[in-house]
Amino acid sequence: MRIMKWMESAVLAAGVMTCGVALATADGPGAGSDEAKQANAFAKAAESAPAADVATAEPAVLPARPALKVVKVDREEMFAEEGQGANAVDGDAGGDSEEDADEMAQLLEAKDWDGALTLVDEMQAEAAAPLDLARFLLLVLKKDDVAAMALAGKLGEKYADNTDFLNELAWTIATADGLKNRDLALAEKLAVRANELENEEDEAVLDTLARIKFMRSDKAGAIAIQQKTVTAAEAGDDDCMKARLAATLQSYQAGKLPSPEEANGEGNSLEERLADLLSEDGNEDGEGGDDADADGEGGAAKKIMLPAGGMVVVAKGDGEAESLGSYSIRLYAAEDQEHPCDDFLDGAVRPREGGSIEGVSVKDLDGDGTNDVIVTFRCVGTGSYLSADAFRVADKKLTFVASVADQAPNANVEKLLAFKLKPAAPGTTAWFDAVEAAVRVCDDEGHGPDIGSDEWKRAVDAKVFEDKDDDDAKAPKIGSMEWCEAVGRQLGLFGTEE
Question: What are the pLDDT digits (tens) for 398-407?
Fold first, then answer.
């Protein structure tokens, strides 16, 4: 893999520039304002930033939010100028990429941000694509606000025509946890430029800009832009995204800013985005690497070894959205550890309507002594709802056996699948346990009312029928058999939902 010749980027002495516009403009904040002081601090930091902070080729950019990602530039076009080809892998540092990815994972787990920044510098020397975004995310995680904002300003200038990169920078500035000096003026300039590039038609960019407007006390502007976002999304078929955007609009109208967790969705933290970006499997288009060989489809595959032998590989369909489409599940004998995918045994392709693939696990759900493979999905929009499919592995065959859908974000889907396979009558102890697995009245340590008690049933009723009118005479009495059956229907505890 060739080593790129990095060109030193000139630092603008007049201050940090973003998208060709200085932070402190004639109609911007005065010289004595907090924003102007902050811009001066960022400018000083930028002057001392090493040239390696800004590489010269177009980077591969992580999605801002999976539900809203619209890839505007394919890899052939993105890397065409540098002659790298579409197989350039995000953060691929040559022959040592696997070792680098393992080391990075350890550093991230230990929160050793300085060590991770050093490793990024080492990886950059042979990387096929710039690691500018990784360096920025690490500075944010380190909570080095001044350095992070200064680098964001330089990157905004350098990638002024890259919508995805600009949007990623703006969104991170607006939502990253723990930033004490969040430069919202910079974030807005980045988002405005990205919005111009997309002719005000990209849902992800509009969503970012609306959030920043709200955070800068422009409630009317935020509502107007978010309404455009909702309208732009109506033509699509991504229901999770539509629901998230509509809920965000309602929050702005009520004067409330959705939390970063609500905005980002679970499973999309800075650490996870960074690990994805720098891992060998973090390649956006699923090209190159062992996982692509295993699944032959878009997106990195998830693999799991079975206790009784064999391997299962799960991957979403090529070119599909994160939030819906299809996924494949394949069973291999995996007797040859060096080439585990050589001996294919069985497989299937199923609809993926519950969101992005969150994980794959193995458990004997019903205690019959056979392996069951559980594929878990999480809606990438508002609610982060969980869904899951279960497959029986026996006699070298994969057989779909049960499914649960649209469960609470913290639901125990394994217990719910087990209940589907061995159901119990409403009102029994096993049935109460399944309801608890779905609604989670008690916390992870089991603190809360006794399962099945009157207090617990009232809590269940409040969670399951949150829109119910307390004076509704037609509502079944809490704890009655009619109530139990209504709860079961609402939670989807009946049938396998094939």
Answer: 999 999 988 8
